[in-house]
Design a protein that fits this description.
Layout (H helix, E strand, L loop, with lengths): L1 H10 L5 H17 L3 H23 L3 E3 L12 H11 L13 H21 L3 E3 L3 H29 L2
Antiparallel strand pairs: 1-2
Length: 162
C-alpha cells in the first residue's frame, strides 16, 4: 500500500503523501514486527544509497521524477527515498528467504527493478528521457547489483553486531 501511495501521490501532484504513508508503515513495522536496531541501520543506509542511485539516474539524463525538490536540483524526490526505506524493511521478513542467494537476488533485481520503473512511468510518476530498451538495461544492471548489495550490507550489519 505504501508503494502505491508513493507512485500515485507523485503522479497526482501530491508527492508527500507517499512518504507520510511509508512513515506510518515503518512506525507500525518497528512497533509490531521488528525491534532490531540493525534493521533500522539498514533502512537508513539504503535511504541514502538509494537516493544516491536514483539521483544518478536523474543526473545522467536517464529519467526524471514527478515531485522533485526543484527542477534544477538532480536529487531524487522524497517519495523515492521512502520507497527505498520500505523495500529495505522487507529484507529480514517477507524477503528473508533470499538471504545468501546471490544469483537469484541479482536476477530478481534485474527483472523486477525495471518492471517497477515501467509501472511508475505508466502511472506518470516517472518520465523516461531515453529509449525504453536502454533504460531497461541500465535499470536491470542497477537493480541487479542493488538487491545483492542490500543483502550483503544486511549480513554485514548482523555479523558486525555479534
Amino acid at each position: 500500500m505504501s508503494w502505491w501511495a508513493c507512485i500515485l501521490g507523485a503522479s497526482k501532484g501530491i508527492p508527500y503523501i507517499g512518504p507520510v504513508v511509508m512513515s506510518l508503515f515503518l512506525i507500525i513495522h518497528f512497533i509490531f514486527i521488528s525491534k532490531n536496531l540493525q534493521e533500522l541501520k539498514l533502512i537508513i543506509i539504503f535511504a541514502l544509497v538509494g537516493t544516491f542511485i536514483d539521483s544518478g539516474l536523474i543526473f545522467f539524463g536517464i529519467l526524471s521524477y514527478e515531485g522533485l525538490y526543484s527542477l534544477g536540483i538532480p536529487i531524487a524526490p522524497l517519495w523515492i527515498t521512502a520507497m527505498w526505506c520500505g523495500f529495505s524493511a522487507t529484507i529480514n521478513h517477507s524477503m528473508k528467504w533470499l538471504t545468501n542467494k546471490w544469483l537469484i537476488t541479482f536476477l530478481l533485481g534485474a527483472f523486477f527493478g525495471p518492471a517497477a520503473y515501467l509501472t511508475g512511468e505508466k502511472f506518470g510518476a516517472i518520465n523516461f528521457l531515453t529509449e525504453v530498451p536502454n533504460i531497461a538495461i541500465i535499470l536491470a544492471l542497477v537493480w541487479g547489483g542493488s538487491i545483492p548489495l542490500i543483502y550483503w550490507v544486511n549480513n554485514w550489519l548482523i555479523t558486525s553486531n555479534k
